[in-house]
Specification:
Layout: E1 2-10, E2 13-21, E3 32-36, E4 48-58, E5 65-68, E6 73-80, E7 83-93, E8 106-112, E9 118-124, E10 134-135, E11 144-145, E12 149-153, E13 160-164, E14 175-176, H1 181-191, H2 200-215, H3 223-241, H4 248-251
Antiparallel strand pairs: 1-2, 3-4, 4-7, 5-8, 6-7, 8-9, 10-11, 12-13, 13-14
């Protein structure tokens, strides 16, 4: 909500005019996608799968209208921690020349905000057709098509675990990109420190203070946490180098 005050001089008398109103702030979401199963495994050419596609965003005050492409059936939304998950189902057949005309069926979700701005994310369903090479499920990892990389969301952390299936259908070594949630949140704050609310100098000081608090611990092992830490510093360096600051003391 905002209030505008207009000051007018009339015959030596100051007259204040006030106008009240509201201002709409619209958000455009960052969309994460997934499919279950990620790589449908065809046993025969006549097999049919019902694939669940999910589009996940962070919870916010924004009210979105979510639509899917024509051949996907919406299944509503659910909440999980600080996220909102929208789901749809798509029927996948095992014929290489399917009605979709593609060997990798495409499903897309489109979010429309209150300002009629849209954001669309596509999900390619990589079918393992009869005769295709693939890596057989192993532990946490499901059947995966050759030359593709399987991904699993990190448990209670940001980022993903990845494991590639080689072109010969052999599993390669797992690569973890799991990042401590608090450190990931610091990086997100660093990326928007020069836009939105507050001055860059004060926002930067807050980012650095949070960064120091999070990284002064021995519980941040692994390459991904180190890489994210470096990204925080390089992100802030770029923003501060391109700005004329009024409060250098805060940065120091």
């Amino acid at each position: 909500e905002y209030v505008c005050v207009f000051v007018q001089e009339k015959n030596g008398t100051t007259i204040n005019h006030r106008a009240n109103g509201t201002m709409d702030i619209c958000l455009i979401p960052i969309i994460e996608t997934s499919a279950e199963p990620t790589f449908p495994l065809c046993k025969t050419d006549s097999s049919v799968f019902l694939v669940t596609v999910k589009c996940k965003i962070k919870k916010s005050s924004e009210s979105y209208t979510v639509t899917w492409n024509n051949d996907a059936t919406p299944k509503g939304s659910t909440e999980e921690d600080d996220t909102q998950i929208y789901s749809a189902e798509k029927v996948i057949d095992c014929k290489r020349t399917s009605s979709s005309g593609s060997t990798s069926p495409d499903v897309s979700c489109t979010f429309t905000n209150q300002c009629n701005q849209t954001q669309t994310q596509h999900v390619m369903v990589s079918v393992i057709y009869v005769g295709d090479k693939y890596c057989v499920r192993e532990g946490d990892w499901g059947d995966t098509k050759a030359s593709f990389t399987a991904q699993i969301k990190c448990h209670k952390q940001a980022g993903t675990r990845k494991r590639k299936c080689s072109h010969t259908g052999t599993w390669e070594k797992e690569v973890s990109e799991c990042v401590e949630k608090k450190l990931y949140d610091v990086l997100e704050s660093a990326k928007i420190s020069d836009i939105g609310l507050g001055e860059l100098s004060l926002n930067a000081a807050i980012v650095f203070e949070r960064f120091k608090s999070v990284t002064k611990t021995s519980t941040l092992p692994g390459y991904a946490n180190l890489d994210t830490s470096v990204t925080v510093l390089t992100t802030m360096n770029e923003k501060l180098s391109n700005s004329s600051l009024m409060n250098q003391t805060a940065i120091d």
